[in-house]
Amino acid sequence: MTGTLSYSGDEIIDQLVRDEREPHREPVVRITGLMVQYYHVCKRELWFMSKGIDIDRGTPNIRRGTHVDETSYRDKRSSFQVNGRIAIDIVDSGEVMEVKVSSSLEEPPRMQLLYYLWYLDRILDIQREGVLAYPEERSREQISLSESNAIEIEETLRGIIDTVSADTPPELEKKPYCDSCLYQDICWL
Ligand code: SF4
Prior knowledge:
Helix content is 43%, strand content 14%. With 189 residues, it is α+β, with helices and mostly antiparallel strands.
């Protein structure tokens, strides 16, 4: 079904794949690109978000990120909703593009983009390359789905299902970016 990659064969992931291939069926957890990003930033943050304890998206940092995303390469990329599940941008070259303000946290946006490539490959049998763009830094990074990072994505998806299915948030653990996190008042009162 898929390109040249082989996958984990994990039952939870196989079930997720079956549900995603039939959009009328709701998966146990509907996993978005943002959830993949949050999982790699802070699992506690992901848990809060999944329980509807949401942050104020009108803050200057978030407004700046949204502005950069909405105004960069707009003439070169088109947005698509895939199965009503994930939202991706495709550039003229056919690559999937993710635009970020800063490359200070490399892993979360990289995993978000890999999730989109995984989704296209594993669910829809569409093989694409990815590009992570940081317009304010005038830099780009090419991202490809491989055997090893496809397994990383499936571990992430299993971790997301475990995290959001739990009744209580993951243990509190100080992170370098807690001071700028919008949940800090909940975590560190
Ligand atoms: S304050 Fe720190 S521990 Fe709490 S959600 Fe934010 S990053 Fe995670």
